[in-house]
Design brief:
single chain; mainly beta; Tachylectin-2, Chain A; 6-stranded antiparallel sheet; binds 2,5-dideoxy-2,5-imino-D-mannitol
C-alpha cells in the first residue's frame, strides 16, 4: 500500500516531542499523548488491578489522520505509563484508521470492539489481546458486521457500546437516520463475531434548533449505555437507579456536545424520561466513555478538544487532552453528578486557604495569596438571592488576561442559579475560541460547592457536581487568582487551594516500547 503524506504533516516527526514539551500551554497533570494528535478515550477499563486508557492517536502530527489506538496504563488513575500502540491500521477493513471502541472481557480474553475505517466508512471490527493487554491480534473475520442495517438511509455508522446479559452479548453502534435523528442500533451475539440486528434502541429528533445546547444532532457518536447507581443493565431495578444513554451529538462533521438520556432500558428499547446536558462546556468534553472499576465505581473520561486553529495545533506539535477521570454518581433528582476521582488529591502540594468571610456588595474583593497555572481550588460559598461571585484564574498582573468562573443565584429566592465561564478576556490571541459557556445550577439555600482544576490550557469546573470543561489559551503567562462578589451578599465558608504536581517526569516516546 502506498502511503501518501498528509498535507498537515509539516513538522518533522523528530521535532514533535520537543515542540510539545516546550509549549507552556500543554497540561502537566492531565493525560496527553506523547505528542501528535489525541482524541477520544477508548477501551477504558480496569483489568487485574491495572487501569487501561486507550485513546485515538496520530503520532505523525497534531491532526486527525490514519488513527491508531494509543495506550497507557496506571495503578492509581493519576500517573500513567505509556505502552506500545495497541491497534494500527493495516491492509483490510481498518486500512484508513482504527476508530473508537471498547474493551470487554470475553471469559478471560481481553477483546476490543472498534470501528475499522476503509474507503471513507466505518464498520465494526474485533481484536483479541494477550493476557497483559499489550499485544493485539485482529480477527480474520473483520469486519464482524458487514454493513449498516439494510434499507435505512444513515448519516454515519460507528462507535460501540458492548455488554453482557447472561450468555448473550449486546452491542450498540452509533448512527443517525437521515432527516429523522441520531440513533443507536442494537445487535445481539453469542460470540462477539456474529451479530443479529434487533433495531434502533432509541431515535432522536434532528428537527429541533441546531443552535440549542441540547440539540440531539443528526448522528450519535460514542454511545455509552449503563445503569447508574445500583444494579446491572437489563436487570429489574431494585431502586430508582436510572439507566443512562450517553451520546455525543454530531452533525455533518461537526462535533457538537455530549448529552444523556435518563430512562429505562428493557428488551430492545430504551424508554427515555429526560434529556440532559452532560457537560456545560459542550464540545470541550466530547466522546466520553465510562467503565465500572473493580471497586464498583463508575469512572468516565472525555476528550477535551482544542479551541485553537488547526495550524496552531500543528505548530504546537500536539493536540487534545484527556479529562481527569470522573467519578459518576446519581444525584437526588435522578441526574448525573461528577467529581474528579479522589486519587487526584495525591498531586496536591502547598496548601493555602483564604479565611471565611462575608462579601457584600458590588466589587468586594478578597485578597488571595493563591497563584499558579497548575491548581486545584475548592470553595464553599452561600449566595443570597440575586448574589453573584466571580473567581478569576490565570490572571495576568496587568489585568489584561484572566478567565472568570461566575456563580450567580436567581433573584427570586428560588434555590436555582447559573454557572458561567467567561473566557472573553482569557487570551489576547484573537484566533482562539472564547465563546461563553454556562448552565443552570440548583443550590439549596444558595450553597455551592465549587471545585476548579486549572492545568495551563485545560480547565475543569465542578459546581454542585455539574461539570463545565473548557480550554483556554492565555498568552501572558499570568498565574493570579482573584475572588470578588459582584452583586449582593456572598458568604465564603471555605476556600482551599493547592498547586498540582505534574505526572510525566521522563521524556516520552512517540511510539512507546513495552515496559
Ligand atoms: N472520533 C472517532 C470516531 C468517533 C469520533 C474517530 C468522535 O470513532 O465517532 O477518531 O470524536
Amino acid at each position: 500500500m502506498t502511503e501518501t503524506i498528509h498535507p498537515l504533516a509539516t513538522i518533522p516527526r523528530e521535532e514533535l516531542l520537543s515542540r510539545a514539551e516546550a509549549d507552556p500551554l500543554r497540561p502537566r497533570f492531565h493525560f496527553v499523548s506523547p505528542a501528535g494528535w489525541l482524541n477520544d478515550p477508548n477501551g477504558v477499563s480496569q483489568w487485574n488491578g491495572t487501569y487501561h486508557l486507550f485513546y485515538q492517536y496520530n503520532p505523525e502530527g497534531a491532526f486527525h489522520h490514519r488513527i491508531q489506538w494509543g495506550h497507557a496504563t496506571s495503578t492509581d488513575l493519576v500517573t500513567w505509563t505509556d505502552q506500545p500502540v495497541a491497534l494500527e491500521p493495516s491492509a483490510g477493513p481498518d486500512a484508513e484508521g482504527c476508530w473508537s471502541g471498547v474493551l470487554v472481557n470475553d471469559d478471560g480474553t481481553p477483546t476490543l470492539v472498534y470501528s475499522g475505517r476503509f474507503e471513507g466508512k466505518e464498520l465494526p471490527c474485533v481484536a483479541v489481546g494477550s493476557p497483559d493487554l499489550l499485544t493485539w491480534t485482529k480477527d480474520p473475520g473483520n469486519p464482524v458486521i458487514a454493513a449498516p442495517p439494510a434499507g435505512v438511509d444513515i448519516t454515519a455508522y460507528r462507535d460501540h457500546c458492548v455488554w453482557r446479559e447472561g450468555d448473550t452479548w449486546r452491542q450498540l453502534v452509533g448512527s443517525g437516520i437521515r432527516d429523522v435523528g441520531g440513533t443507536a442500533f442494537l445487535y445481539e451475539s453469542s460470540d462477539l463475531r456474529t451479530w443479529d440486528y434487533r433495531g434502533p434502541l432509541l431515535i432522536g429528533d434532528a428537527q429541533g434548533d441546531p443552535a440549542d445546547t441540547d440539540w440531539t444532532g443528526t448522528m450519535w457518536e460514542c454511545v455509552d449505555l449503563f445503569r447508574a447507581g445500583q444494579g446491572r443493565l437489563g436487570s429489574a431495578p431494585a431502586d430508582h437507579s436510572p439507566d443512562v444513554l450517553v451520546f455525543s451529538a454530531w452533525d455533518d462533521g461537526e462535533t457538537r456536545h455530549p448529552l444523556y438520556w435518563t430512562g429505562r432500558y428493557a428488551g430492545d428499547t430504551f424508554t427515555s424520561e429526560a434529556l440532559h446536558r452532560l457537560d456545560y462546556g459542550g464540545r470541550f468534553f466530547y466522546a466520553p466513555q465510562s467503565f465500572l472499576d473493580e471497586s464498583g465505581r463508575r469512572v468516565m473520561f472525555g476528550w477535551m478538544q482544542e479551541g485553537r486553529s488547526d495550524a496552531a495545533m500543528v505548530d504546537a506539535g500536539w493536540s487534545g487532552v484527556m479529562s481527569l477521570p470522573r467519578l459518576t454518581t446519581v444525584a437526588n433528582d435522578g441526574t448525573l453528578e461528577f467529581a474528579p476521582v479522589p486519587e487526584i488529591g495525591k498531586l496536591r502540594r502547598n496548601h493555602t486557604s483564604v479565611p471565611a468571610q462575608v462579601l457584600v456588595g458590588a466589587g468586594t474583593r478578597v485578597t488571595t495569596v493563591v497563584s499558579g497555572n497548575q491548581l486545584d481550588l475548592e470553595l464553599d460559598v452561600q449566595l443570597a438571592p440575586g448574589a453573584e461571585i466571580r473567581l478569576g484564574v490565570l490572571a495576568s498582573a496587568d489585568g489584561a488576561e484572566q478567565t472568570v468562573i461566575v456563580l450567580g443565584r436567581d433573584a427570586d429566592g428560588t434555590p436555582t442559579g447559573t454557572l458561567r465561564l467567561d473566557r472573553t478576556r482569557s487570551s489576547l490571541d484573537s484566533a482562539v475560541d472564547v465563546e461563553e459557556k454556562s448552565g443552570p445550577l440548583s443550590m439549596t439555600d444558595g450553597r455551592v460547592r465549587l471545585r476548579v482544576l486549572v492545568d495551563r490550557s485545560a480547565v475543569e469546573i465542578f459546581a454542585n457536581g455539574k461539570p463545565l470543561t473548557a480550554r483556554i489559551y492565555p498568552t501572558l503567562g499570568g498565574e493570579g487568582v482573584t475572588l470578588a462578589a459582584t452583586e449582593g451578599s456572598v458568604r465564603l465558608l471555605s476556600f482551599d487551594a493547592w498547586t498540582m504536581a505534574g505526572v510525566f517526569e521522563e521524556t516520552r516516546s512517540l511510539l512507546p516500547e513495552r515496559k
